Amino acid sequence: MNTKLQKRTLKYVQELLDELSSSSCTFQALYQFLKKHYSRQKCAIYFDEDGKLKSQRYKDFFIQAEELGSRMCNLFGSISSSSPIALKYRNSPEWPALFYAILMSGHDVLLLDARLPKENTENLLQQTKAGAIISNEAEPYSIPSYRLLDLKKSEKVEPKVWGNHVMFCSSGTTGAAKVMVYDGKAIVGQVNSAYDIPHSTVDIIYDGELRNFAMIPFHHIFGFVAVFLWYTTLGKTLVYPSSNATKDLLYAIKKGKCDHVYSVPLLWDGVAQTVNRTFAMKNEKMQKLLEKMVAYNCHEISKKEAGIAANKIFQNIVKNKILGTSPIYCITGGGYISRDTLHLINGLGYPLYNGYGMTEIGVTSVELSPRVEDRLLGSIGKPFHGVTYQLKNGELYVKCASMHIGSIIGGVREDFDRDSFFATGDVAEEIDSRYYIRGRLKDVIIDNDGENVYPDEIENYFKDVTYIRNSVAFGVSNGHKENIVLVVELAEQLEGDALKKLGEELQNVNNKLVGSRKVSEFAIYPKALPLANSMKVKRGQVKEEYINSPDSFLYFDKKHRAQTAVDVSFEGYDKSKVEQVLNLVRKAFASNLSLPLSQIKDDAIWNTDLGGDSMSYVSMVADLDEEFHIEIPQEEYGKVGTVNGFALLILRLLDQR
Questions:
Q1: How far is CA 320 from the centre of its chain?
Q2: Is the pLDDT of residue 191 over 70?
Q3: Which of 278, 351, 453, 644 has the most CB atoms lying inside 10 A of its own CB?
Q4: DSSP tag of 142
Q5: Are 137 and 127 in contact (CB under 8 A)?
Q6: pLDDT at 286 over 50
Q7: H helices of 512-593, where?
Q8: pTM
Q9: Rounded to an integer, what distance in angstroms lies between the CA atom of residue 25 and that of residue 183?
Q10: 80 close to 74: Cβ distance less than 8 angstroms
């Protein structure tokens, strides 16, 4: 490490944070701190419709925030100060200005996912007693709703009293909401947790220009703290992609010359899969060169052994096809990261570090070692300045002044004592003063020998299987033990030989696992797996669906869930109309089953009588939707299995139009 740079960075960081910590530790004080220190620096880089790079300076951000704040004082003047204002806005240069403007208006801020459906949004608004919502969508709500243009039309009123709380939604987009409340002191504490970082590395923060990729949504604690809060407080630049489409993300990282890229494992796993699949199609020489490049960067072979693969020109050629050559510090957080992914990303020359945090405690640690050997172990590092970790029966407990001060659960406010330890629910292990997260306590699967099996580990074994976009594993009780179930989301619809090949590939991986890790059952989710905060699969929800509605899933084994024949009556329907529908359904059956029309009996069951499998069933349903211009509900999948059954269902749906 450059000693002079380290000393300069340490002085730069600690002098700023000492000054901030000596303030009143409110959001107002934080904003005044920004105004005092940053004016000419760039705060944002973004892209117009033509992909041309644009920028914004902090002085323009201050002007925008204060103008919006004065207008919000007028708009929200009649709303009780105890009612938060919701901010449902995607990451953009306007987001920080809107955030501080709401606080200037004298209200607290409720942060919402910009992609949250209206019904779920309404649930959170009601349970938090929000007074208004600011959104970049033209969706009406039960409370006053404003877009940016609406705000600019209001009269100005000078701000007097600031709001001093921000709220993060941990869960409860349906049912009882769980919202974590942070005050200004906790937020300043989150910034101050970076106090000792320069002792370990100068890559994560340093004195000078630094560009951080603003991809993680700011409504999420990871994006809010590790991207927005840390780097704006230290006067750095955020680079905003024009959308979350893969091409736009990669374009922004490269064109914006991002030094730092922070994201969830989903992105890093996706990069690793793309690289593996791309090079699998290259000639053997290129594959060997990539292997050597990865091994060299992971300090597994010498420069001499790597040959041209160690050459900077060759490495830059490879990197320019992925994230470009600018990233020097990357963090993964918000979920389990596999050793394979850590190895490949670090081997590509992108230093990828594992971090830890949650909605209740903020961001509390990240591996800081500049040694690649340490990064590859998957540690979350040591607790930050002012944070204490403690293990009790394998569970991680955390205490710090920078965690939430209270929660709103089901509409009821509860305070939290920050002098107490918070039980995270994560199973952890300490090795040589570093901490490792093994899984969620509630998700642990107990095998017949009483051994703990972690679902994240199971999912990792199958992540590189062809056509698997995402997966989730869980245990289902079977008397004295739990069977492991793996539910997969497919990247595209498969049928016939392709589906059979996928099933065989899954089973081949499964056969290599030790007994306690073997999957008992594979199932296919017929749509996109539900994600929490757009980041990780809602394991509990999928498990509940699997137990309570198994017929809504698809299976590789066609005999696993058999459709049944039911008594069908077409009474009340025109006979000619019934026969017309029956004929079209028979044809759809015959086409997707590759059977003569004469073999399709009206009461024959799709899988047990006609030999159909789950994926051809889905294809047949899609054909019926197109033929009749309807949409057969997902909950009916697997329940209806005969020509008669489908004909009756279609007639009912046609009547509802």
A1: 25
A2: yes
A3: 644
A4: S
A5: no
A6: yes
A7: 539-548, 575-593
A8: 0.78
A9: 9
A10: no
